[in-house]
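Reading a protein record of the kind used here takes only a little practice. Think of the row as the fold of the chain written in a discrete alphabet. With that in mind, consider the following protein and its fold in token form:
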Amino acid sequence: MKRAIRYLRFSQLGQSNGSIERQEMYTDQYLQYNNIQLVDTFIDRGKSAKTFDRPDFIKLQAFIAKHYKSVDYLLVDQLDRFSRDAGEAMNMVKQFQRKYSIQIISVTEGIIFDYDTPGSFFRAGLQLLLAEEDNINRSIKVRGGIYTARAKEGRFLTREKPFGYVKVGEGKQRHLEVNELEAKVVRQIYDMFLRDVPLYKIKEAAYEMGFDRKGNMAVERVLANPVYAGLVRVEPFKDLPGGLFPAVHEPIIDKATWQMVQSKMKIADKVKVVVDDEIPLRGVVKCHCGVPLTGAPSRGKSGKYFYYYKCKHSKHNNISAVKAHEQFLNACNLMSIPEKKIKEIRNGCYTSLEEEMKTNRKKAIEKNRELQEVKQRLHAVEEKWFKDEINKDTYDRWYSTYSDHILNLTAAIERLSINPNKAFELLDNNLDMLSDVRYIYDKATTLQKREFVNKVFDGNLYYQEGIYRTPTMLDLLSHNASKMEEKGYLIYNKKRDNLSTIPKSGR
């Protein structure tokens, strides 16, 4: 009696039961009709036929290598179960026959592959080529569908949801919605990066706020992901272009902020910046050659340590941190704003805040309208559940979807409905501090000091020949520039239009 093993495979988990049952039934019928004894069965579940690197196919090869003398046939339902790569498959079946004397039988196609029989060889090769062509056509259709969904419809199709969003809806209606609690963390990450906060500090703050993505590059991936700007990345398809396309989901940060971050990531200093309270200007003040100054302590004869700012070029700057800090504090003294100017700023800020609050109230009304609609849908689902019109699985799925949506809308409404008095109170309590800029800087944390320097000088503060120099300075604080130069604190050589307003943080 002839003996056989069989190999069954399906590529999509959704078709598992029907596909395997059908393959078993046809191969069982062939075995019974031809009086062949089944020795063993190997099944690869949810595995593609593009490669032979499949768990049970590897076991099958090991079985044949060990027991080939007691096996005559390898049965498959169709040759495309065996492989969809015609060339690779032909070599494999030739090896089975020539090395182990085992023939491949495709039961539903009626093919007994025999390399020494021309007709059999041609039929098997043709079937494998047809299977490969079918696979190519299917792949083209899938890639075309993905391109359309992303580039034309703006849908986000990646299986894992990005941090900051939740997935709602089913099928083609499935889309991303902002998770307000996580979105707050995303905005903070972008804001801190634009404020030149070192990445290790950004990561510490993000994880403290609830960031839950793992990996050393998790924060960098958030900074590089266009999904947060309401964009979707699309691969080119045939003659159609790839790139970034507008998405249907709501962005967490604006496109201008995202572009600024991408530009900054390309030119970011590769040297890791470590924050040290003794030398807060390290990395934010540059040598006249353009290289950011480093900083380190040096031990004196008495055994006491003294801090210095240094350029990597030995013949360039080597400045006492005490001197550098005192010069900068004296320059801050002269940046202080007169009371009359502060009053003008206060009036302008009041007007801007009122306009922003007015816009937020309109958005809150729209979100509230959407919230009521979602609550009605949830109520309708509950009614159907009570009337036994839907099963529990359907009810649980839609209840979870609508509940998450309600939580996010509620959080958004709360954010947009913040009492404007708090903003005005914050303005009133802190604006007068501009009359003493030295005090502001002196009492700031190290990170705040670094942010202050970058904002006031737009990242262009240098040190040369015993004095600070800059081509760009916040216009609001430059009114005493001539005195700063006269006293040897700071030279403001205006090279382009200066900054007339306080730069935005990027949020």
In short: The chain has four domains: 3-143, 165-267, 285-336+436-492, 339-431.
